[in-house]
Amino acid sequence: MKKMFLVVLLAVTVLGISGCTNTSNVFDFILDEDYTEFVTMATSADYPPYENIVQGEDGKNTVVGVDIEIAKAIAIALGKNLRVVHKGFDFLVEDVRDGKVDFIIAAMTPTPSRQLIIDFSDSYYSEETVSQVVLIHKDNVDLYQTIEDLNNASVRVGAQTGSIQAEFAEIFTPLATAKIIQDVNELFSNLDNDLIDALFTEGPVADAKINDGYSDFIKLELTTLEGYDGNAVGVQKGNTALLTVINQVIADLNEQGLIAEWLVTYSA
Ligand code: ARG
Q: How far is Cα 82 from Cα 32, in angstroms, rounded to an integer?
């Protein structure tokens, strides 16, 4: 028993010293050697240019993107290191509501129904709204020229579980066969492999993916709907202290033009 305890203790110590817990879904960023604490952010890292898992220079997986840069700036403003937890998008709102994490950033739109459960920061886009699109394969351009062409039971439309795009699929193509899937990477490969015919996603994500190997995909623009504007950071209801810091960080980053710059960097 004692031996067992020692082994566990040793494992914990080794992980602690290396300063980098990198089990598959947790990514630690030591932002300053003097910081003693971590702030924890959750995201669904399947969404470039916002958050994406890539191989780092050391060969290990890491998480990168606009939202990760924003999270680092928030952590620094709090004087803490950053822990990023990667999860299914549909878990994020409840996790921050329940206090399992301090905040969430996942290109999340502050919709009225989510605002009943958690509080949101200001949108971190200063001006432009995020465009909504439907992707189809270029082989099908003649078949699907408009969104209306997709509204047919024989058409399989994909969207991420718990996302506003899943709602759009229902609103715009109620007759189609919806394939609601948790992982956006899987949705893209399904479109590529003809397992779905169309994919509801957002403009910046479509562009990043088209730039990163999916050049056969074509965008159909979706008309924007009211109540689905912007992307914001989510915190537990009533956590105004944290929200004040986050809004200040967002204002500073936008004033320096950094968020716009990161969007370009991580879409390339
Ligand atoms: N903006 C959409 C929403 O709020 C989709 C966000 C998906 N984010 C992600 N990291 N997979 O529902």
A: 10
pLDDT tier at 130, thresholds 50, 70, 90:
confident
- In which residue ranges of the chain is CATH 3.40.190.10 found? 2-126+229-267, 132-221
Is there a contact between 109 and 231 (Cβ–Cβ < 8 Å)? yes
The superfamily (CATH) of domain 2-126+229-267 is Periplasmic binding protein-like II (3.40.190.10)
Sole residue written with tokens 């990163």: 212
Sort residue 98 into left (φ over 0), alpha (ψ -120 to 50) or beta: alpha
Candidates 120, 165, 183: which one to mutate for ligand 1, based on the most atoms within 8 Å of Cβ?
A: 165
Please check whether the domain covering 132-221 is classified as CATH 3.40.190.10.
Answer: yes
Atom of ligand 1 nearest to the CA of 201: 5
Q: What is the pTM of this model?
A: 0.90
Best mutation site among 46, 89, 205 for ligand 1 pocket (most ligand atoms within 8 Å of CB): 89
DSSP three-state, residue 229: coil
Centre of ligand 1 to C-alpha 258, Å, is 21
165 Cα–ligand 1 center, Å: 8
Q: Which helix (H) or strand (E) holds 77?
A: helix 66-78
pLDDT digits (tens, 9 = 90+) for 104-125: 999 999 999 999 999 999 999 7
DSSP letter, residue 244 = H
* Gap from CA of 134 to ligand 1 centroid (Å): 14
